[in-house]
Design goal:
Elements (H helix, E strand, L loop, with lengths): L1 H33 L5 E3 L2 H10 L5 E5 L11 H4 L4 E2 L3 H6 L4 E5 L4 H9 L4 E4 L7 H13 L2 H18 L8 E5 L4 E3 L4 H8 L3 E2 H4 L5 E3 L2 H7 L3 E4 L16 H4 L5 E5 L12 H18 L1
Parallel strand pairs: 1-2, 1-4, 2-3, 4-5, 6-8, 6-10, 10-11
Antiparallel strand pairs: 7-9
Helix pairs in contact: 2-6, 6-7, 7-12
Organism: Pseudosulfitobacter pseudonitzschiae
Protein name: Corrinoid ABC transporter substrate-binding protein
GO biological process, one term: cellular response to iron ion
């Protein structure tokens, strides 16, 4: 009789411990879920793409209209599965988000209004170097409660970039030129793509550190090994005249690579590696011509 009492008591204690443990686990899961945003709205093209890469199914409920355009977004197909927004505070508020993802250049009036309405807004700075990509991924992973997924993506990105960034024996001199004679120096995302692919950037020789104007006359005098042009937008605008100027085609020894800068260069996401790969292939073409 005494033995039966002891066994019953032990069984009761074990059941009690089990119930306590299960309750603790359920509480922990509920707490974690409560801290994870369930309705996320993005109002910036680059946060659209970072969120599309990392969000759990159903977590992201709206992205910008720009992300639906294949000319601007590398994830147009995925983005078109979600409703588009125009980045306005009133429109976003009606979507009932518990988190809004924005850029540091998003209208402060929009940011302030959303925050005043009690909605959390996380802002992301534009990437100015390839080293910023892991930081943006980590920031998005933290915002969405997807830290593990972000870490895995960062590790893959770093490994791919290291494999692509093997320094060549000789670095050809390259120039980037866009409409209105704008160019990108070493301290910009596009400039860093060039450097990682094994090019020297002639914009540095002209004293251009980040983004600015590289006059056509100066570009011609610099006589780079290759000129990479930005997108020539549809329509007729004087701003685009520099891209078709005969002075460029008359340069002897300069390879005109045509329009190679596109949507892969816009945002600091892992797809920027596509731009690095394209530039590595271009460098090999230039080396073969020399």
């Amino acid at each position: 009789m005494a033995l039966r009492t002891v066994l019953c008591t032990l069984a009761s204690v074990r059941r009690s411990d089990l119930i306590t443990s299960v309750a603790a686990l359920l509480f922990s899961a509920a707490t974690a879920l409560a801290g994870t945003p369930q309705r996320v709205v993005s109002i910036n093209l680059c946060t659209d793409q970072l969120a599309l890469l990392l969000a759990s199914p159903g977590q992201l409920v709206s992205v910008t209209r720009l992300s639906h355009e294949d000319t601007d977004s590398v994830m147009g197909e995925q983005a078109r599965a979600l409703p588009a927004n125009g980045s306005g505070a009133e429109e976003v508020y009606l979507l009932k988000p518990d988190l809004v993802l924005a850029g540091t250049f998003t209208s402060m009036a929009t940011i302030s209004m959303l925050r005043n309405l009690g909605i959390e807004v996380v802002q992301f700075a534009p990437a100015r170097a390839l080293s910023d990509v892991p930081e943006r991924l980590a920031q998005m992973g933290e915002a969405l409660g997807r830290e593990a997924e972000a870490r895995a993506m960062i590790n893959h990105f770093n490994a791919e970039l290291a494999a692509l960034s093997v320094a060549p024996a000789h670095r050809p001199r390259a120039a980037l030129t866009y409409v209105n004679n704008y160019s990108s120096g070493r301290h910009s995302l596009a400039g860093d793509v060039l450097y990682a692919a094994g090019f020297d950037n002639v914009a540095e020789e002209a004293g251009l550190g980040s983004v600015g104007v590289l006059p056509l006359e100066q570009l011609v005098l610099l006589a780079p090994d290759v000129i990479i042009q930005g997108r020539n937008y549809p329509g007729a605008a004087r701003a685009e005249d520099n891209l078709d100027h005969p002075a460029l085609s008359s340069l002897k020894g300069t390879y005109m690579a045509g329009e190679l800068t596109d949507r892969d260069w816009v945002c600091g996401t892992p797809t920027v590696l596509n731009a690095v790969r394209t530039m590595v292939d271009l460098r090999k073409q230039v080396e073969a011509r020399q």
